[in-house]
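FAQ
Q: What does a multi-component entry look like?
A: The components come first, one per line:
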Amino acid sequence: MNPKMITENLEAIRKNSPLVHNITNYVVMNNTANALLAIGASPVMAHAQEEVKDMVGIASALVLNMGTLSKEWVESMIIAGLRANERKIPIVFDPVGAGATAYRNEIATRIINNCNPEIIRGNASEIMALVNQEMKTKGVDSVVSTKSALDSAKYLAQLHECIVVISGEVDYITDGNRVERVAFGNSMMEKVTGMGCTATALLGAFIATNDNLFEAAVNGMTVMGITGELASAKANGPGSMQMHFLDCLYKLSEVEIEQAFCTVE
Amino acid sequence: MNPKMITENLEAIRKNSPLVHNITNYVVMNNTANALLAIGASPVMAHAQEEVKDMVGIASALVLNMGTLSKEWVESMIIAGLRANERKIPIVFDPVGAGATAYRNEIATRIINNCNPEIIRGNASEIMALVNQEMKTKGVDSVVSTKSALDSAKYLAQLHECIVVISGEVDYITDGNRVERVAFGNSMMEKVTGMGCTATALLGAFIATNDNLFEAAVNGMTVMGITGELASAKANGPGSMQMHFLDCLYKLSEVEIEQAFCTVE
Amino acid sequence: MNPKMITENLEAIRKNSPLVHNITNYVVMNNTANALLAIGASPVMAHAQEEVKDMVGIASALVLNMGTLSKEWVESMIIAGLRANERKIPIVFDPVGAGATAYRNEIATRIINNCNPEIIRGNASEIMALVNQEMKTKGVDSVVSTKSALDSAKYLAQLHECIVVISGEVDYITDGNRVERVAFGNSMMEKVTGMGCTATALLGAFIATNDNLFEAAVNGMTVMGITGELASAKANGPGSMQMHFLDCLYKLSEVEIEQAFCTVE
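Then the predicted structure of the entire assembly, as tokens:
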């Protein structure tokens, strides 16, 4: 993980403006579309069973998010996921609220088994619930530390041969063997709904422009965290945080990325 | 109604972070989730018939809002409401647009009769439409004053043994006998979509942490109004109003609450 | 096109507060409701097949937007459109993403043929796709200039006897014969999701208060563009752009409209 590598990935997004197809939840659709626009990608939200195959057909990445899941939407996610596999375009999956209800556990498992996502991103409770269905989640909020979910993440990554991202105060990215730790970010991010979903959506843009999945995930979470730090420095609360996040993401520069690394080390 | 009582309720929300389960409308989901986070609660939005029972099973309050109702969602609301009754967790119901169409009147009646909400909150037209189905609402906007709806509110509260809140320039809270008048707030709040729905969602957090339903409703509407005043003092229009509202709600202090009371008296 | 005419239309919206019924997409519902409130109109979002007839029955304009279309919603749009025709209230149609999938092309054609919209507004790719179904759209983003879509727009306007608006860096409004060019706006608008949908929604307010459809469309796009310029002058990025847009729209004055014309000429 170094500033140069991250900046290059960011520049590739801005240059190529990849079409990222999102089948996501009602709460965050506006935010995630805006975050994808701010970073330079081209978002599209489409969920009709009649068209998801076609939309995946022109997309560079597919983002599946089960935040406000229901039967019809899940079917669309599966159809879109299978088409993405056929076309060999990457999938990022966000198991929002896994552990909160039996239905969420069932659907998360079904999506993972059918669609083989390249990246799974969740909070600690969600990632643990994907491995141990006895694990409980408080609605969509985590009740455990990211560190404690690391073994579950590694197991999951090995089992499904994918990248698993646990996000929280500190993020962990693993391919089952390697583990990268991203310690950027600010606690104000938890006070804005859909920040996790925004991370997932942005990973779609990074993975669409970087063949190295592990690097793409690390780059994405780093950009997310640094942007969160920059925005929180300007914010007076969660309302202005949300606004500054988009402004900062839009303007994020190589110098800012380098400076963030200097501050940490 | 006094500042101390309100601050205590607010502190209880911040300390306990109650899980508030919302089955609400598409327009306001993001705002209401953010308002609940800003006040210190833990919001979850989930509507699938397959999971609402389970989600109510871990929630501390249920918020039902029929803003963008449709058949499937109404069924989920009923299922969730019945489960909330079983678990004896409180329900806040928002009859958005009651009076605008026959369907809305029918569904509002059905939800009230089946789910027995602890609090019903609406604007004056909506509350009157629940009593007199000849009453007309202009879309989702009220066409009458809150004062004129007070008799309807009292009747409704007695009939269903619940608290009824009429919100508007002045809010009225009644249990059918007592009436409390809350005169905080600012006209700019009407220019931001979903401010009424935000009040309803916040009532979910207050009622989850206060066994006295009447007090909880008064406290919630007071916090809503004071926050609106603080935000409007900083706002240049409805866009910045929405942002400042979340920032002010997040930071709302005992001193600010006390000062607001001083200004009124 | 002159400042006086535009200001008069704006004043008519603020004075009459027309009820604009929107059946629109999940991504932009909040923004478009807020934009309609900011300009002085009264928005309502309702899509249940059981009630759209009744809601159209009290509305002054109907806005149909197929951004996140699905079978049930399309049926509701058709029902609402037919009722609007019966009542002779104007329809504005936004063929979001036409050209991206075969399903979108099919539905756009079906809505236009069944509902006979008074105004069709889209970006260049979308307008061209309505005429030439071989035309491709990149998700919901245009890949061609507005100028190049002008012939398609004229053809479409003549064929369906309606007004067609192509929006982009420069907007074109045509009734099939006349063409008006609106060159206000700012490139930051493209970085905020749903700005096109917001234009469509605002056209609903203009057309509800102006019997001259062509003028209403020109006025609406001019107000949209001038507001975008004013907002972008204050914005630091797409997040603050969205906020300032609503604030500026709320406050937009005759003087500001006049000054914008002076700057252009």
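Q: Is there any commentary attached?
A: Sometimes. For this entry: Residues 3-264 of chain B form a domain with the UDP-N-acetylmuramoyl-L-alanine:D-glutamate ligase fold (CATH 3.40.1190.20).
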